[in-house]
Amino acid sequence: MPPPPLTRRIFETVHLTSLGLWLGAVLATGLFAAVVFGASRHLDPTVPAFAAYEGNHADLVAGFIQNQVFMAVDAVQFVAAFLTLASLIGLLTFGKLPLNRWSSGLRVLGVAVAMGLVSYYLMVLTPRMTENVRIYWAAAEAGEAERASEYKAKFDEDHPAASNTLKGVAGSLALAMVTGAFSAASGGIATPGSPRKTSDPVEPNKPKLEEPDLVRKGARA
Questions:
Q1: Rounded to the nearest 5 degrees, what angle is found at the Cα of 187, between the Cα atoms of 184 and 188?
Q2: Each residue of 24-78: pLDDT tens digit?
């Protein structure tokens, strides 16, 4: 017996909401970084905590603020990714989402790619970049310009990979959202034994009812 329509609607709602939250967090990160670094470089601050460092204090301040944003976004990504995957599994298992549809296939592909990319980002890039920037800040605070420059360069080496990975996550999530919304709006799923709609054509070989005798006699008369 197929599940009630409410089951699929619940999973679709959780799935699309999680995708939207995840995508919004990733896009907000890039926007926030552009605003913070632009404003900090415009103000060109000098930070007493890094008074011994003769390098660029504007990037230090912006990087410190942006790091807090990344930590919050990473937490959101982790939760949203879990909910996205769990709701997709629920759709496939309990919501009877048909995999033979192109929209379902693209949705699963988008989620799978996003999961793979965010796993690489959170498990490989983020720990390494966090450690490098931590040593960079500590060296800058101690006035060790050469060491600070060394670890800033290591951090900068991973920055293009991190940026491209997040772009890939955003693109995959956008694909999953569009195809998921199309699939959710396309209606229910066909089930064996479903009643035929009144608008369905009548089978050409179906026998017609025999004309009553009274009608035939009246027509001859």
A1: 105
A2: 999 999 999 999 999 999 999 999 989 999 888 999 999 999 999 999 999 999 9
DSSP SS3 for 197: coil
Output the six-digit token pair for 208. 């017609």
The long-range contacts involving 181-186, CB below 8 angstroms and separated by at least 24 positions, are 181/16, 182/103, 183/12, 183/97, 183/101, 183/103, 183/104, 183/107, 184/12, 184/16, 186/103
- Count helices and strands in the chain by DSSP H and E runs: 6, 0
Sign of the CA dihedral 72, 78, 81, 86?
negative
- Among residues 190, 185, 6, 193, the alpha carbon closest in space to that of 95 is found at 6
Q: Are 18 and 80 in contact (CB under 8 A)?
A: yes
Q: What is the Cβ-side half-sphere exposure of residue 157, based on CA atoms within 13 angstroms?
A: 8
